[in-house]
User: What shape does this take?
Amino acid sequence: MVKIAVLAKEVPDSDIVDAFAFAGRLQIDPATKTIRRENIAVGMNSYDAQAVEAAMRLRDAGVDCTIQVLSVGGIAPQALFQRSFALGADEGYHLVDNSFAGVDSMGCAHILAAAIRHLGGADLILCGRQGTDYDQGVVGPTVAALLDIPCVSIAKDVRLVSPGIARVVRAIPDGEETVDVELPAVVTISNELGVPRYPTAMAAFAARRKKPVTLSAADIGLDAARVALSGERVRRVEIDIPKREGTCQFLEGNSASDVAAKLAQALSKESVI
Ligand SMILES: Cc1cc2nc3c(=O)[nH]c(=O)nc-3n(C[C@H](O)[C@H](O)[C@H](O)COP(=O)(O)OP(=O)(O)OC[C@H]3O[C@@H](n4cnc5c(N)ncnc54)[C@H](O)[C@@H]3O)c2cc1C
Assistant: This one.
């Protein structure tokens, strides 16, 4: 039985963040230097949904596997776990502890690595190539380093070609690269993998009854003081919201062709056409 661990992060909905920014309603919390998330829906990082999809494609290909989803923190984690269960994940682990407050990517990776160890290790650890909120792409490779296992990044396809060997196709700027990696390994999944499946209504309904297991720092054998030490090496000094301006010009004319001519002229002036 192949054990697959998928690391999944809760992020604010990017479309809503964009809409808030455009409307001038996006706010930064001056104390934590993070985006205020009140009224912004949260859900699973889209790359992580693709990581779950990668795990499901392995199962579809006949790999006998268990799929665990692990997530640290978050304000409404039930949405992330319900989606994971609906997509086919077998187990969910929610990592929560007071000592996790304020962790950076390194701290987050320490927590995830400790949880994976606590759960008896995994043959394949799938995660997103980056979080869509801060786009750091640090957690996956750091988990690999902490577990002393290889990491293959930015994958568009993962297959098991022989026992203990995964063949990974990486998306690279001018095409793709295929590599074989010995398991256990971390593979970070990119959007080139393709659109994740939609759960059936029946699966979504059944997922509502499933709950993740909650694990604290003590549960996974992590010393709270060590989390604090490992978790605050990078401090965000400033974060800015770019200014976005939209102008709207109404064109008037005597006829449709007159307005169309004015529109063409305006677009040409702005170098749009
Ligand atoms: C409990 C908690 C408290 C936090 N407090 C603060 C704070 O006070 N100030 C602040 O600036 N930031 C805070 N953060 C944000 C924290 O810095 C980021 O979660 C962390 O840096 C990882 O995000 P990233 O963008 O670096 O991930 P990336 O490295 O971009 O993510 C890559 C992949 O790693 C995996 N991954 C990342 N994060 C998680 C996760 N949480 N759970 C499971 N898998 C994950 C996913 O597969 C993801 O696709 C907090 C986070 C948590 C979980």
Q: What stands out?
A: The mean pLDDT is 92. Residues 2-231 form a domain with the Rossmann fold fold (CATH 3.40.50.620).
